[in-house]
């Protein structure tokens, strides 16, 4: 849900900016009929002969909609509702930018995601029914709330409003782990009794910027990261004592110091204040160490299904050489290593590679090696050296893979390619390339990794044409 936050513009001091500004005109309202949905779940309508995208509107619905000069259109009143509409369970849904489709019933959410995948994958075959989640709330193991000052310098702890960098006070986010929000609530209350200020983005002063909580869903371990604008931590010992007294479930506490003036959540400096500085969690029968910065899939229940499917599609017999490209902390490769001859992981992020190596030792995996490199360059070098691989598993970022990587796949000529993606649009682009390079798509499996949001994960099996 935090996707895109980093790139959002820094806000101005809104209070200052509003002084002397003429009162804002109310945006015009108009009646529209929704004819379809964008791939990110917005309604599509026509206004003044042009396409208008309206968040929270469903196909067939008639609505009165406000159309401001700048920014997204907004539903003022639904005049005729679609049967798939429901009252969003979260009271912050219409303001907050975290979830986009809570106004759809759960079944309609699945139909929407299935429809997006079916359309994008049509040239390659018919996707399997989406893997759904039995309990599609409270699934996140990584939960962040941001702290700031309100107009009266009061502490605000919450999430950013949609399409903006304005903070809205949120006590409970329904996709967060409830334990995480309870700890954040306690910290919010403790700030004033410990005379600690929230960080003010405009002045660059103040103490608490964010609280990041990671929860090991199977281990029950809890990491609290206090992201502070200054290294000084007044009353630290008593603060930690009080926090741990109220939340004995906390297993480690870290202070991350972020003095940057941009909107990156974590700074580069860290102090472990309590515990080991990491938590562990179990996935695919292995135990992974998770630090504050490690990339780790945020929905472990669905990740078990996703990785299980990816390993099944790899069709391993115990002898194969498997490449785990874009491997992060090595999760997929290490899980696959139990059924493979050997695993070669490649990942650009240095910290993640260190984590992957540590995780392979921790799990006594002897047949996996990890390399820090650009995946495309690494594969190009492998192909040039005449090396071979039996299976390539790739799980690139949202932007997808690149030509260097995909053309090297064709040269390495693995019999199977298992492509995991969090963006079916870039995945479809890359599948077009691979199918022209001698591969056939055999199976397409969508997985709902991010319920209540428009995001959908897919895993695709390609095999070499004989
Ligand atoms: C979607 S994550 C997948 C991580 C891992 N497979 C998992 O499931 O946890 C994508 C990973 O690709 C890495 N990455 C991004 N661009 C890369 C590149 N050009 N070469 C290698 N790794 C890259 C990112 O650092 C990130 O760890």
Automatic annotation (TrEMBL):
UniProt keyword Iron-sulfur present: yes
Keywords: 4Fe-4S, Iron, Iron-sulfur, Metal-binding, Methyltransferase, S-adenosyl-L-methionine, Transferase
Single biological process term from Gene Ontology: rRNA base methylation
CDD domains registered for this protein in UniProt: AdoMet_MTases
Residues that, per the record, bind S-adenosyl-L-methionine: 297, 326, 347, 395
Active site positions: 422, 422 (nucleophile)
Region Disordered: start-end pairs: 1-37
PROSITE patterns referenced in this protein's UniProt entry, alphabetically: SAM_MT_RNA_M5U, TRMA_1, TRMA_2
Annotated Polar residues bias: 26-36
GO molecular function: 4 iron, 4 sulfur cluster binding; rRNA (uridine-C5-)-methyltransferase activity
Cross-referenced InterPro entries: MeTrfase_TrmA_AS (IPR030390), MeTrfase_TrmA_CS (IPR030391), NA-bd_OB-fold (IPR012340), SAM-dependent_MTases_sf (IPR029063), U5_MeTrfase_fam (IPR010280)
UniProt keyword Iron, yes or no: yes
Bilayer-crossing regions: none
Biased composition (Basic residues): 1-14
Domain of life assignment: Bacteria
Protein family (similarity comment): Belongs to the class I-like SAM-binding methyltransferase superfamily. RNA M5U methyltransferase family.
Protein name: 23S rRNA (Uracil1939-C5)-methyltransferase
Organism: Salimicrobium flavidum
Native organism taxonomy: Bacteria, Bacillati, Bacillota, Bacilli, Bacillales
